[in-house]
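User: Can you write out an input/output pair for a complex, sequences first and structure second?

Assistant: Here is one pair. Inputs:
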Amino acid sequence: MGAWARRAGVALFVLAMLLFVIGPLAWLSLRAFAQTWEYPRLLPREWTLHWWETVLEDAQLGGAIRLSFVFAPVTVLVSSVICLPAAYAFARHDFPGRRVMLLSLFATNAFPKMGLFITIAGLFYSLKIMGTFVGVVVVHVLGTLVVMTWIPAAAFAAVPRSLEEAARDAGAGPIRTFFSVTFPIAAPGILVAMIMAFLASFDEAQGTFLVGTPTYITMPTEMYTLVLNYPEQAAAVFSIMLSVPSVVLMLLVRKHVMGGRLAEGFQLR
Amino acid sequence: MTAVAQRVRTRNRTRLRGFLLALPPVLVIAFFIGLPVIAAIAYTFGYSGGINSVVAALAQKQHLVDGAAPTFDAYREVLGDSSFRTDLLVTVIVTIVTVVLVMVLSWAIALYARFSRGVLAKLVTALAVVPMFIPVVIASYAILTFYSTDGFTRTLFHLLGWEDSPALAYKMTGVTVGQVWTHLPFGVLLISSGLSSVPDTLIDAARDAGASMSRAVRAVMIPMAALPTIIVATFTGIGVLGSFTVPYLIGPNAPNMLGVSMAQYYQSFNQAQQAVVMAVVVFVLAAGIGYFYVRANAKSARGSGRL
Amino acid sequence: MSLRIEAVSKVLGGRTIVDSLDLEVETGQLASLLGPSGCGKTTTLRMIGGFLRPDAGQVLIDGQDVTAIAPERRPTAMVFQNYALWPHMTVFKNIAFGLKLRRMPRDEIRSRVEDVLRTVNLLHHIDSHPGQISGGEQQRVALARALVLEPKVLLLDEPLSNLDAKLRERVRDDIREIQQRVGITTVLVTHDQDEALSISDKVAVMTGGRIDQYDPPSTIYRAPRTRFVADFVGTMNLLRATVHDDHVATGDVKIPVRGAALGVEGEWDVGVRPEDVRVSPSEGAPAQVARVIPRGHYTELVLMLGEQRLRAFVGPGSGDDLPEGATAHIEISRALLYREGLLHQA
């Protein structure tokens, strides 16, 4: 009796989770293929692929998609150059101010983005990067610094020193040691961070809108307009297209994310 | 040169190298975030010079300084505004409720996954992590349609015979649902990883000493997973406080969370200074939460919390 | 009879780990489960502690069947291999945890914890965290945490495996001394034969989920009942040889056996302890000295009898001065005969 009640409870919980998490996504996906769908019907009355044509043929939407795929890799690249050496330094060197510097990254999360973007405009104007490609990249990079430093730092710190010492012992110099031992072992953590950064750039809407319009309109920025001005079905189609790269990338690193690579990064040492 | 002096020199050199390597992200933040934030705070006190001049030239209804002394008029105006106070209250409530719900759900799922090796446990964990895969804009839009007047929940209740069930969309309940949805993966991942690092033998030892399973969890699991728990609470809290997309898409026009009010004041009303004042208020709240995170980390680094 | 296990079996992951095992430990005695990794010894211990439920059979403590009782309600206390001290609690809190669960008054908890810490000589670390004390001290805290509950049966899971060699001997003696002083029935699991032989009243040598032999240490050593035990415990020369009344023959070499006649003939596995090999300049079978290994108070010789290798432990003046490459002459003073893995009982 007790065991049955518990099993039923668990099953109910799983079902509720399924509805809570997947329900909205499934509901939205159905909409992308709906011709007519009136309340209170559980499924659309007529189906169509018409909305996919509409979206794919819309030049503006296509441009937004292309732009997103340009900004995301550029952001990851710039962020890697800035952050990965720092991550290594945080993991392997002890220097005065180390903790304070590590924590200062965290502070970037504390000030609301909207407030920041209002005054950042002044800075961007004086640097003449308002409304430019560089300006948008800067905004995107800002959103990736924390993950790109913390998670790789934890990954570097988790490489046993003895493995590096063994490489040095075998005659490898410090740079050779880094590239043939340290980096490959830390690679999964770095990959997780890079994909998180890629998605952060892919997801960034507010800053891009304030800094990039009207020249640079990315997919998520377009989404805001779409939600307000287009039929629901077009927004649904666009949503699916916007989710595909995220889902694919996350599936690639799913094992490492679940394996605690992400969690490690947030426990400062 | 003596061997000791040599060693001190090498050590100083590697320390310097570490410092220099770690500098770039910190400099980027200092320049692109630190500087604007300081300027923003100065702006709220009426200083419109420097990088604030562009914003100040366009904004309306500003309270600027006469001489050198700061003015608190902008704060007086915003804090005195009853709709702001409502928004602040709404923001704080949504934040607290979200943090509590995320904690409860994350702990429940993580505990279940920790002690059950079944397929269901794996499924629930995988489910809880799905939102991480989905861009927030999409998620918000999906949740909006799911809980709207012609959404799934109302359709389902209608089919079950409840004709006039409420729609959560455009209400703060809907916003809270959206916040929980988007913040759940982080909570589940961190707490699961915290729990999985507690060895089975520590639980066995507690049971051997006479503790029931639930007592063993309380006495051993909870304190040992304290750090990830605090990390989840602070990051979720800070994330919800400053959030924009979820309340913007799912929430009502007013009252809504401060992230939305800020955008409204800046973009619709062209009152940049008032918007920044709100940002500073949220920042102060977030800094208060951040303090716990820093303290918890420092404590666990100092104590013997790690095996 | 304090602890009794009857026909207990356990299958894990489709593999039979413990196979219809019987064991009895008398009150106040220390029994060791000794065997190679995977022999089922830890599984047996965990079934006694209640962490695993046997698929068949019974566990009885003081005649009472505890097979279905959860670990928290069983009168057993375990010292875990890696000590399993709770890192977030002080030494005091670690030990007091079980007493608090028993709703003991605070003063009594304090005095009991102090008493048990005095027993293990660690009173000065009462407020330390586990991370702040050495491995040997953590070991003793774990022991104290188990003892303070006054269990009927104390379970020790590889208690010395995480200590360095020097410390291991000392803690081993400490455990034995405390166990005897408290007079508690104890089951210890180990893969280290030295540890088992030197600490136990009885040793159960396990292989493949069964006990091959359960006897006092001296019997295990002098008369290993199976070929496996002979090979596993101590150093043993095992020769495939033809046995005659007064000698054994391997290849062309005939090794004389002194003392009592073997009483059988034919093909046997012959087990000879190195100390039962006598080396002399002229009497017995000739053998090449391949290596001379000084062991301190005795010398180990590795001898070659044709293709057969034989180890001998010799004392001062009885062959320890032979150089490598020399020819020694050997006799056997005692031999154990095995056929189909079982000892021939004369």
